[in-house]
Amino acid sequence: KMDKILLRSDQNEIAILTLNSPKNLNALSDAMLDALKLNFEEIQQSREIKAVIIKAAGRAFCPGHDLKEMQEKRNLKNDGGKAYFEELLSKCTHVMKLIRELPQPVIAEVHGVAAAAGCQLVATCDIAVASEEASFGVNGVDIGLFCSTPMVALSRNINRKKAFEMLTTGDFLDPFQAEKLGLINKVANSKELSNTSLEIAKKISSKLSLAVKVGKKAFYKQAEMEIDDAYSYASSVIVENLLYKETNQGMNDFLNKKN
């Protein structure tokens, strides 16, 4: 059954997705990407879910793509695997973009190695927390494969020189370096890790989801714009937000509390 490779359990308004393929360290295989896509599409339509946590079973978070599967497909095809690789990368890109497009904030909860496309997954999530045992790298270069797609998310998270150094040396970051560079938000000890991500998710869930939804979309959209365009776009978003009846209510409540 395909659904077992990815476990979903909802805690009130929080969807918790657990990568559950410890035998290949939760690699982003075809099946894993399909399962993620399916779940994200469901969550995208949900009115109830207000935040998402992505975590993993076993000793690693995610090592990236499933190299064994990739090599098997390469050898089956007479094009050297080209068509398969294109399809795999396009599927992975689609999943990463879905995380961006979800109205709900997505939190990565990282307890072990997050490498290559696994590091891309962390960089793509809106928020990330990690245990003291976590490590982060884009180390494809070690096997002669430059992490070009993970680079897109990574270079939008941390400064360019550091991203380039990681991509060309294959060196890993420990969680404290990752936090300092802005790849993750918080380091927690492993006993506290799940509580830490849950706490953030609960705090987000307590806010008006309509405002969070419009805000998440605007956050990424304005980041790609020139400053004048960004301000005029953000102003139109905030005007729309001000007209929500819940926002009107929230402002009145706040003013009444002050008086």
Please tell me about this protein's structure.
This protein is of the alpha/beta class and 259 residues long. The protein has helices at residues 30-45, 67-76, 82-101, 117-124, 148-154, 160-169, 175-181, 193-205, 209-223, 227-242, 245-258, and strands at 6-11, 14-19, 51-56, 106-110, 113-115, 127-131, 135-137, 186-188. The strands form 2 sheets. A 6-stranded mixed sheet has the order 1-2-3-4-6-8, sandwiched between helices. Strands 5-7 form a two-stranded parallel ribbon. Helix 1 packs parallel to helix 3 and helix 9 packs antiparallel against helix 10.
Q: What proportion strand?
A: 5-15%
Query: What is the chains' assembly state?
Result: single chain
Helix percentage range: 40-55%
Shape: globular
Q: How many individual β-strands?
A: 8
Estimated radius of gyration: 20 Å
Instruction: Return the structural class.
Output: alpha/beta
* Distinct helical segment count: 11
**Major sheet details:** 6 strands, mixed
Low-confidence stretches: none
| Strand ordering within the main sheet | 1-2-3-4-6-8
SSE run: EEHEHHEEHEEHHHEHHHH
Mean pLDDT: 97
Alpha-carbon distance between the two ends: 59 Å
